[in-house]
Amino acid sequence: xxxxxYIQAGPSANHVxxxxxxxxxxxxxxGEDEDPTVFHDRSFREGVTxxxxxxxxxxxxxxxxxxxxxxxxxxxxxxxDELEDKDVTTDTSNVRFWSDYSRVYYHPRSFQxxxxxAEWERAEGEWNASKExxxxxEHEHDIMDDDVRFFIEECDGLQGVQLLSDxxxxxxxxxxxxxxxxxxxxxxxxxxxxxxxxxxxxxxHADEEQNAMKAINDxxxxxxxxxxxxxxxxxxHPSTWQRKEWLEGLNVDLRSQYHTSAxxxxxxxxxxxxxxxxxxxxxxxxxxxxxxxxxxxxISHLAGRYPVPSAVVWSRETERRLYDLSAITEASAKSxxxxxxxxxxxxxxxxxxxxxxxxxxxxxxxxxxxxxxxHATPYPTPTSFPHISTSPxxxxxxxxxxxxxxxxxxLLASYATLVQSCADRRADVIVRxxxxxxxxxxxxxDLWALCDRYAGxxxxxxxxxxxxxxxxxx
Length: 474
What we know:
disordered C terminus, globular, Rossmann fold, alpha/beta
């Protein structure tokens, strides 16, 4: 059945994942003559009831219940047809947790609680994925525990794993999980979306300790995920998104996780739709072959536009509104090229009319490389989706893309430059993170090597010569 095992780790991942699963739930059809457009059993296991009986004894803990959100209360009251009221889903103050707008019943074994951080680790902030935190996940918690194996063993023909993880607060878990998974299942493909920290797209100096820690942690996660995943997709933190043309047609609050996670989920769900679409033959392995034909370029970028106006005329100007959610935009780049060299591209359009296919294809087929395009059904916007589109008639129209290009090189170079600076200066941040200077130099070398893989034909990326400390010179 080509099932997909989904792993979400971290608060931001759970917000994005909630919108993703609400969209999956909206694909269900209930009429005898309705034919679903996707294979539901690739993402959902067969359910019995909303209350599942678990084997074994039960240890009960009681605490004051958290009041239901207005949305959840009305949903459970059976008012699903009336939930378009803006007072339920538009006001971000109504959303406290991702569960406030969840529409899906989850299997009880879907949720895993990791051990609490020690008090000294909390003092550094949840984003501090120090070496001790990595070791904590490796030694105090069986990452590939029985619950994960339970879902893997239920699959008849697992096509792979789709991972969505916060690098900031769950970097250690992500590193340990993906390493353990690859040890047990070396041949199963994986698609990993890495949610970078707020320091991922800014000029960070080695002396700016907090931001340097965040950025180094991002670099560690990216290196690990790239090495262990078939495809990895870094995603910039919403605080770094540029307020440009791509936000036209949207009334979005970039400070609201409820809003920004909906945008991310729209493009993640659409770009991965071919893995679930009935009329598509693609799986994670074939998607990887399309995006990474050489076998050496496993990092892809996610880009897109939502909503797409119904009167759009495709040109270089309108293409600029396909915003790259992975690329670095503010840090200085060493390349003089203003346009990235593209190696592969997958497009998934949602809600386009048949009359729009020809002009769309005329424009993009002339590109090199021409994208592999899939025209699909409108994007589902359940009542849990925030009312951010200023044109309700266009809220189901989207264009999402996965690309492999030289745009990855500046992103990797920004991390490599920081790590190299920290190592050369023997910065205190390295000690604070519990790392060795040799580990930082190894990370720096790995990042520069990755950077060179993605460089365009006229680009050259290299680090500065290492500066030896007085101890090393003697």
